[in-house]
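Q: Start with the shorter request: fold the first protein.
A: Done. Sequence, then structure:
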Amino acid sequence: MNIVSQTLETEDDLLTCLRVKLYHPQQNVKGLYQLLPLGTKSRHSAEVPLRMGRDAQSCALALADARVSRKQLALHAYRTPRSPNTLFEIQNLSQRGRLSVNSTALEYLERAELPDKALIRFGEYEILIVRESGEAKGSFEVELEVLAAPPSRETCVSSVAPVMEAGSSWMDNFQGGPLETDETTMLHS
């Protein structure tokens, strides 16, 4: 009698993980991340785009910020015949503003491949996304954390001024005391 050994894919151990590190200069005075599951890993189907925006109904990653588009961006998982890894594309869903990926600007509905380490910018947000490979095909994990300093300070991505919505400046929207990052913002202006 032959016993055939089958190894079942245990997706919990083999999931691709997107580590999403968020920064906004006003994050300490506003509850921008109150709708996000910070500090925990959440599992997502690879078949469904992972959206970020202010609309909590249609976005798995909702930001409590009126200046963010209802649907700001989407991450689309995909695979290629040449690689066992789950890869991602990022798409700008905002009709009002640009999104940049490692200093490459994306207009409305434009897509770009998301590298293993990417600095995403829109409005005053800087988001560092790091992909850790896994072999599971049907789903992936997202782990969210808040950074104390802009990730552009620590990455090799060239530092450029924040991607602003048309006609707005972060100083126009500032309501509060001095921020730790005031000098950085002034240096990049």
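Q: Next, the second protein, separately.
A: Sequence, then structure:
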Amino acid sequence: MPSAKKHRRQTLNYKQNKKRLWKKVKRKTEVHIPCKQIKGSWDSTKSMKQNLSEMGIAVDPNSVMPLPKSNLVFPTLITDIEREKKKPGIQKPNVVKEMEVEADLGEREKKFQLPVDDVFFCTYMLDKYKEDYKAMARDSRNAYQLTPKQVRNKIREFKRSKLQYQKYLDSKHDKTVNKDSMET
């Protein structure tokens, strides 16, 4: 019979500064930047302020375009010449240009999708009850005991998710076509 291995309790190493080690690890981790243009030209050896100023992006918009200090606030027009004077040496101007091009293309299409369980719930309810939300609320598959208004809102969400709702309508259409072809 093999002997059981004894585990010794881990002791604290007083010679290591845990706070400093944590800061070192934290500094090494990559920063999550959702914008691909900024992420592509980001230099991890430089600070955030240095990186953004090289790209021509303001860290603090109030410092770039300060508000007038008068009682009457009039919109001030800053010409391109004045803007160029205020900008420090921009070393990566392509970042701002790429961001402007992407903004001109318009908003990206939002792909809203419901969880699979909600889709099954909505399709079942719509097939069985059509638009009768009170009956849907009383159904045994309504495990979360949603009220009729909550069921209605969930089905509205399902109808707003274009891809999933279109898939449901297509499958429903295919079923009716198959029924008609079998009857004839």
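Q: Describe the second briefly.
A: The CA atoms of residues 99 and 105 lie 10 Å apart. The chain has a mean pLDDT of 82.
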